[in-house]
């Protein structure tokens, strides 16, 4: 998680050109991550669908589309952005939760693969389309895994998916409406460390799969972990790939047809590609700590406050300085901390800090809280840098507001 000398210079130059705070993404890093997965799982027919809720800048989508990826969308808006980016509709899977049937119909009419996550929608889908449109079913295998409780999705109390214990009910509906179930899906949560968790989930899904005769793919969601701090353990993707493909192919033999193996990584593809560059406004000594106050906050990167997420912070203005202990805080009028008691090379007011691993769920979760403007986004690709989103302006904050004439005097 070091930044090379050349990269440091380039990043500093970008803040001069585009200002700060600034999100910077490395497109070639995204491609390299995509290649890692496709290489690791190359023993089975593979479909990698980018879970675009991590980062939907249309240029990022196009980089992945050009690599051959599909798309995992969780809202009709993501479906539409994906289509605009050029993804073929049948290479988009729509995995919504708690949406209206109307939205599912809209997505179906757009031609995307529907992934149904509850009995009520399954019944309505069957009733409307019968065997005319295929759909996938999201199963909750009740496996507890994955990082912080907010991103655990496979456990017994989770709102996601149809419980394996409701399989009889599912089959009754499928048979009654003569539905074409072409895929099964699970997503047990983010940050799964362990290949064995994957394999356990797979066994559950294989049991379910034997009940459906027309499957074309099985989608095992995501959960590929990336390193956020230097000592973090990450998913050993080669080992996972080998084990998963060999078990998957064996299952397909039993099943009687070679199915496509699908995954939907978000974080794994884009997290490490992104850096949030912020500028230090203030060094403040208190009785207990030294604060470095920056020109950004939880409005631009909420993961530390929301998930207790660790993001490495590097002082790119003084990379070789003496390490000292800082608490890096934002400018939002709430507790707004990027890092507590962090060793960072000596910081001076005006320095630029690089907050690492900010590609996934960074810009996407940003807001205008405190009426702050959202940062610009820059893409570095094949050694060129390109502005891919303009910095917001005050007019952007007011654009959708309706001014009542009678209140103006
Ligand atoms: C969020 C999500 C993913 C991606 O999770 P990551 O941890 O970013 O890889 C994949 N599939 C579904 C259905 C999701 O909701």
Low-confidence stretches: 146-151
Output the CATH topology of the largest domain. TIM Barrel
Structural domains: how many:
2
Rough outline: globular
What is the highest CATH level, the class of the largest domain? Answer: Alpha Beta
Output the structural class.
Answer: alpha/beta
* Percentage of residues in strands: 15-25%
Give the helix level as a range of percent: 25-40%
Query: Which compounds are bound in this model?
Result: pyridoxal-5'-phosphate
Head-to-tail CA distance between termini: 56 Å
Mean pLDDT: 93
Summed up, the helix count is 12
Task: Give the CATH architecture of the largest domain.
Answer: Alpha-Beta Barrel
In brief, what are we looking at here?
With 409 residues, this protein is an alpha/beta fold.
Question: What attributes characterize this protein structure?
Answer:
12 helices, binds pyridoxal-5'-phosphate, single chain, 409 residues, TIM Barrel, nine-stranded mixed beta sheet, eight-stranded parallel beta barrel
Description:
The chain has helices spanning 5-18, 27-40, 58-67, 76-85, 101-109, 119-129, 167-176, 195-209, 237-255, 267-270, 303-307, 394-398, and strands spanning 22-26, 46-51, 70-73, 92-94, 113-116, 134-140, 162-163, 180-185, 217-219, 260-263, 274-285, 290-294, 313-315, 323-329, 337-345, 352-355, 376-381, 384-389. Residues 146-151 have low confidence and may be disordered. The chain is 31% helix and 23% strand. The chain is built from twelve helices and 18 strands. By secondary structure, the chain is of the alpha/beta class. The chain has two domains: 5-23 and 271-398, Lyase, Ornithine Decarboxylase, Chain A, domain 1; 95-265, TIM Barrel, CATH 3.20.20.10. Strands 1, 11, 12, 13, 14, 15, 16, 17 and 18 form a nine-stranded mixed β-sheet that branches. Helix 2 crosses helix 9. The protein binds pyridoxal-5'-phosphate (PLP). Pyridoxal-5'-phosphate is lined by residues 51, 53-54, 72, 74, 95, 187, 190, 221-222, 224, 264-268, 360.
